[in-house]
């Protein structure tokens, strides 16, 4: 099975996200990324705030059509724990029995399993404009140790979610901001290693800096790109051709 764990392969695939010219292309690339990671299904949903009183919803998915129809017909978004989590938090949420609290949510979980949607993880994404998105990745029924597999991929999920959200924002004409920012050589070095999946400590060791120094550069990068997370900074940098 081919995966994203090779850095050059990961960046090559993610760059395709920023090259998408329409939502159909974006959905196709997201499907490819999902398969490369070893997952079977994906579901991306986002709400973009156009102004204080209006918004625009977007969905990309290869979930079974029968489930999507059941979901919409019964307005299951009102009890979906993944969506509730995405509204409040940025941390990934692994689909475990404990997240389905109410009896209605337990029935929701049972219905999803009957449609082949059992072992998954959801990655929220927010930005400064108040837009909220969520990418869920779901494993096929043939994966033996689903929990371990999901844990191994927790790094790549938020990165993909931010790339997709950034691309969709551009496609719905939300991203009118210039992407390029005047980064210093040291900031570019930090950005390169962060994009390669290195932690703050690892980046500090490679560049012979203190962890505090790396964090300082990362904060500057995020400020210059006007983003709120390092995943979003990497997405912007790839779009600019900086990494």
From TrEMBL:
Gene3D superfamilies: Transcription factor LuxR-like, autoinducer-binding domain, Winged helix-like DNA-binding domain superfamily/Winged helix DNA-binding domain
DNA-binding listed as a keyword: yes
Keyword Membrane set for record: no
GO biological process: regulation of DNA-templated transcription
Domain HTH luxR-type: 176-241
InterPro entries cross-referenced by the UniProt entry: Sig_transdc_resp-reg_C-effctor, TF_LuxR_autoind-bd_dom, TF_LuxR_autoind-bd_dom_sf, Tscrpt_reg_LuxR_C, WH-like_DNA-bd_sf
Alphabetic keyword roster: DNA-binding, Transcription, Transcription regulation
Molecular function terms, GO-annotated: DNA binding
Protein name, entry field: LuxR family transcriptional regulator
């Amino acid at each position: 099975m081919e995966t994203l764990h090779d850095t050059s392969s990961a960046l090559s695939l993610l760059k395709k996200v920023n090259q998408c010219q329409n939502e159909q292309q974006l959905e196709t690339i997201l499907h490819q990324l999902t398969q490369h990671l070893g997952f079977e299904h994906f579901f991306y949903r986002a709400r973009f705030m156009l102004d204080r009183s209006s918004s625009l919803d977007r969905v990309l998915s290869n979930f079974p059509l029968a489930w999507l129809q059941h979901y919409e017909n019964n307005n299951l978004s009102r009890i979906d724990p993944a969506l509730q989590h995405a509204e409040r938090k940025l941390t990934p949420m692994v689909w475990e029995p404990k997240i389905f609290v109410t009896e209605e949510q337990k029935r929701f979980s049972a219905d999803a399993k009957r449609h082949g949607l059992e072992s998954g993880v959801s990655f929220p994404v927010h930005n400064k404009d108040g837009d909220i998105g969520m990418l869920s990745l779901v494993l096929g029924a043939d994966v033996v140790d689903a929990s371990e597999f999901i844990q191994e991929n927790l790094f790549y999920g938020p990165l993909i979610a931010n790339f997709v959200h950034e691309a969709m924002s551009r496609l719905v004409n939300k991203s009118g901001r210039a992407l390029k920012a005047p980064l210093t050589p040291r900031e570019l070095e930090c950005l390169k290693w962060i994009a390669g999946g290195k932690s703050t400590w690892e980046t500090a060791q490679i560049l012979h800096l203190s962890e505090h120094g790396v964090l300082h550069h990362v904060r500057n990068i995020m400020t210059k790109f006007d983003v709120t997370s390092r995943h979003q900074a990497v997405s912007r940098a790839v779009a600019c051709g900086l990494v």
